[in-house]
Write a structure and sequence with these properties.
With about 80 residues, this protein is mainly α. The chain is built from 3 helices and no strands.
């Protein structure tokens, strides 16, 4: 029974690696030609992050950078300058 579980883990890892790398490569190509390149790169990294710690860490770094960029570009509410 343990051999079957081990074989399924290996098959899952191979499928995740293949799908993730394919999405990543197609995304890189689509950066040059018209298409949703960045979206496919993020999708490929998300798939790879299910099996690989380096991809998970990279996704977390990208999320933190995107949040900082969002906070920096979001318009700030003007302060109330009236005296109370």
């Amino acid at each position: 029974m343990a051999e079957i579980a081990s074989a399924w883990r290996l098959v899952r890892r191979i499928v995740v690696t293949t799908v993730g790398c394919t999405l990543l490569c197609v995304g890189i190509v689509l950066l040059v030609i018209p298409g949703p390149g960045i979206l496919l790169i993020l999708a490929g990294l998300a798939v790879l992050a299910t099996e690989y710690a380096w991809a998970h860490d990279l996704m977390q770094w990208i999320k933190r950078r995107a949040e900082r960029l969002r906070d920096r570009t979001r318009p700030q509410a003007p302060e109330d300058t009236r005296l109370k």
